[in-house]
Amino acid sequence: MKIKLGLIYGGKSAEHNVSLQTALAVINALDMNKFDIHPIYISENGEWVRGQALEAPVKEVQTLKLQDGGTTVSPVSLNSELFPATVEEHGKIDVIFPLLHGPNGEDGTVQGLLELLNIPYVGNGVLASAAGMDKVVMKNLFAQAGLAQANYVAYIKSDFEKDPEAAYNQVEESLGYPCFVKPANLGSSVGINKCKDRQSLENAFKEAFEFDRKIIIEEGIIGREIEIAVIGNDQPVCSVVGEIAPKKEFYDYKAKYEDGDTDLIIPGNITEEEYETIKEMAIKSFKAIDGSGLVRADFFLTEDGKALINEVNTMPGFTPFSMFPMLWKQTGLEYPQLIEKLVDLALERYEQKQQIKHTF
Description:
The protein has eleven helices and 14 strands. The chain is α+β, with helices and mostly antiparallel strands. The protein folds into three domains: about 5-120, Rossmann fold (3-Layer(aba) Sandwich); about 150-220, ATP-grasp fold, A domain (Dna Ligase, domain 1), CATH 3.30.1490; about 220-350, ATP-grasp fold, B domain (D-amino Acid Aminotransferase, Chain A, domain 1). A five-stranded mixed beta sheet has the order 4-3-2-1-5, sandwiched between helices. It has a five-stranded antiparallel beta sheet with strand order 12-11-10-13-14. Strand 1, helix 1 (about 15-30) and strand 2 (about 35-40) form a beta-alpha-beta unit. The longest helix has 20 residues, at about 335-355. Its EC number is 6.3.2.4. It comes from Metabacillus sediminilitoris.
């Protein structure tokens, strides 16, 4: 029996187009002898559109918008057993792979929906997804777990607007320059700026607040950017490490997705001792957010060999040329097998949850 795999992609997020690229890559890597692939597109305004099961690989991203043959549906139609009043035209889905990046998808919202629908899904649950998306909450959890990281401060827009000068002064006194200003709840380096003086700091605050009501400012760290991939549930395992070597000042959105102006060095050239430290910290960060399925953990490695965790990404870039799949390929797990492994982990976690008692 083939597994009926639903792929949710798109999303009401600034990372909508990144999600489409991810979906295209996953669809074309899946073994259609093992999976019936059911595309579920979320438009930029939040409309859900479900297509017929795919019978062949998809050539163009535009096709994934399901403008021909797609049916606008309610999300609850994914489980007509729980919601029998809904119209179910396509048959029950066995497991969902949310290929969503950013808010309204990677942040626990869709994961919460799938929990309510009692459908197995790939990746992190509600708590880990929400904590992994909110950089401030994430870093607070890392601090409590004793993980070394850069100094940071955070602001809510309404509080900042009461006294902007005080905020700028605090950044300069606590962190100094250079520093990085980021929206708290966004990925793919959207809205991030490196600041070297007061003027660039003010401009960065303004841009970051366009993408979120909460922002985080981190001290600049002189060090190499090292990344490691983690998969698993209760017993996570790590890949080899990779190194980001941007030819610009930092690894921004354009460097990631547009001009390719970055070297990805896999495996990264670090010592065995440094690798063991980073691996241990990555697993500790995974458990700190109660992760499941997958994360990519990002670190700074200073000249004196000290590792500082920067963040974890609960739905990292997932095309064959993204760091997460490339790290696993170098570790011995090819892209199609990686996808299958994540589906297996999703079903494993679902079965574990079904053993939990809900009455007493």
